[in-house]
Amino acid sequence: MKQHNIRSYPGLRPFSILFFLWLYLPIAVVVIYSFNDNRLVSVWTEFSTKWYATALDNAALMGALEISLKVAVISTVCATLIALLAAIVLTRATDLKFRRVSETVVNLPLILPEIVLAVAVLILFSQIGLTNGLLKLVLAHTAFCTPFAFLPIRARLQGMSLDFEEAARDLYASPFTAFRLVTLPMIMPGLFAGAMTAFVMSMDDFITSNLLNSGGATTLPVYIFSLIRQGTTPELNAISTLLIAASLIMATLVLILNVRAMRRG
What we know:
By secondary structure, the chain is an all-alpha fold. The protein is built from 12 helices and no strands.
């Protein structure tokens, strides 16, 4: 069959340029105006980094960032462990009953709208009388982030040959030793990618965090939303730019690890 070069289609290049401009131009505007000395966001005067210093000196902002980091780290660890165990069972247990049902249960937070999951956990916590705001966020974020960690780990396990584990067992390694010395190092790129994805999703989550928001448990996205309701300021642009930079760094690390894993594979 004759293969068509997609680049040869008329109008594709300008359409692609317009698409990426529409997608990334607002982000570029936020980054550029975060260095604006003027308090009016839309009026450029001169280059300045004072809004970054103002944002970092904001006690409420730093408190919200601390809460977000605590919730993200704890929920990432819990979600990654759950995802790792689920991926091992679903890929290695050949005689497992209801495999498809189990996979659907693990991936259910991806299928359901987030608002439905947030309302469900809100009702559940109110029914059992759970009032600790930080604990509620950790439990909800763990449930929400588990499928994001599960997918890369499962993909890595499915792409790994069983010959390595069987060779370790032939050399009298126990199942745990074979997992620790053979399986775990080989799936580490997928494990790291899943953990970083879960971390970013937890840091970025707004709907669940907003519904479960309580005194002393305000996350950074919820705090930023409260600032937006008061009006856009260069300080908000500086906060957004720092978040964009952090997300790009994590995404780059995940991409590098995936490329290295593909080359080794």
